[in-house]
Amino acid sequence: MNYFSRHKVLAATVSLIVGSAALHGCKDFLASNAAPQGSLNEETLQTKSGVEGTLIAAYRALDANGSVQSWGNAASNWVYGSVASDDAYKGSEKDDQPPIQDIEAYHWSSQEAMNYLNDRWNGMYEGVVRANSTIRLLNEIIANKPALFSCTGADASTCDDDAKSILGEALFLRAHYHFEAWRMWGSIPYYRAGDNDFRKANETPQQVSADLLVDLDSAIALFQTVADPTKPRNNDAGRAFLWTAKAYKARVLVYSAGLFSDNASWTAALTLMHDFNVGGADQAANPYRLVDSFDHVWTGFAAYANSPEQIFAYMASVRDGEPNGNNANWGERLNFPNGGASWSTCCGFHQPSQNLVNAFKTDANGLPLGLSAPATWNTEDSTFANDAAALDPRIDWTVGRDGVPYKDYGLHARAWIRAPSTSGPYSPKKNVHEHAANVEGNVGWTPTQTNAVHIHLFRYADLLLMEAEAEVEVGTLANATAIVNKIRTRASQTVQGCGISTDGQAYFADAATTTIAAYPQCAGDNRIAVPLGDPSVTWATYNIGTYPATFASQAAGRDAVRWERRVELAMEGQRFFDLRRWKIADVVLDAYMRGVGGGAEEDRRAYLVGAENWTGVTDRHYWYPIPALQVELSKVGTTPMLTQNQGW
Known about the structure:
mainly alpha
């Protein structure tokens, strides 16, 4: 749930109920035949709190625990963006959540995979419906009770700042949910507030792109007219505002440029993104920046929440009165070390692939080994514990490795892995809170695996690297190099430290004993993050450098930016969609399975031997199949309005 710092309980509970009433009406819940009491309808919702409730409900659909409860509807897109790529295995045991394994092996037409895809479809369009409900209700208020928002005309542009921002936020959210569906399926229906029949034909991917830009431009125009466009409404962290919409527009343009080989979109994106970095007309007002250390991006520590790197995030809430912990990171709670960790009891999903781990190896210059040694970078099949291989320090903020401290939980160990032969020896790390942050849940199923860690849906480093892409594509290689070097310089600031916990409970006392036995220098050292080169670190050899002032060629720049996106955004649900928009998914994913850089995942994980081949980006795996149930439901008479994607 995307909460606002001053309204956690409202956003998590009351507003969801109000918003749902706006969407679906209210049934008589009384057992007797007495007159309904306290019922909600469109007239009673025509208040400021009513429209605010429907808007909060639209934010609430960001994660998997709205109306569509499914691991396949998680805010982070870990199933479709990471497991379907070369970043991660499904994890866990072979027979647990088999639909994810079908998605991982590209068996997308199986019934189980279709069920997961249908959950994602429903989740995204639930968000669209809620956004459109907000727009409709606001329009009704303007028509029937204009004084509520000091309106002088028939639309929100003539009203006060609250009405302008509410409409802008709803339009932004409508664009976001359509964007997520668009990058899954390409050809999708686009629903507006006036649509009253869901049986609507899908548009071409190009038409959807144009509609996304219309919504985002409309939101931008509204946000620009409020008294202070530099801040979100009420200064509530998490709300979309002018700069959120501008950044998202740049994102859509970059996607369009790649998907449609559209040079004009590269230029338009670059012009807009210069406002976020250097040289743009409005650059001084940009509120976003890289935080000073990579470990401050994915963290539970309150001091680093709502950081200037956060463009748009799912912001979970714990200990807020919800009895089952459902306002926490519901969609990520499977993605913790399993069993043997003691502090974490389940479930070992979304485990980093060996290919990803090897991607963090660096050469003598501290640059990606995969670029300087393309034939051998992927040969190793180990945990790298006490290994001489030089590594990018971001590996140990991303991956749990045996013999290496895991935040402040002690040394990662093989006993933490549920089924190593299936899922490999590594654990996910970004979504896991630090114990010292004290942000874990205390109710519901696996409460220690629910937390308030922000799930970044779009962050500033992502935007900067998209800008670097655009610079490469238009030929300004020095600019692209400078951006990549900025990202790499930030990555060099800190590495995983000893992280000895001061918590005296038995598990942490034992973890401290084990850590100190392996690394005596860690006695009394509770630092989770230490500077690169700190003498306490003997479990890894970290080496990260920057590129010379200008990439040697456009091809070299393209390779460097793409590699940088992989290691910076690893396990964040972006990789698969990057490979697709670059039109290299067929080459990269076939090589990932069958062999690249001296290693093949089908040799490492036997269950991947049957993974389907990609035979070219024009073939069926280019887009996910539209859920068969949705095609059936779209029929008018016997004719489906939805056209299935090619090959399915």
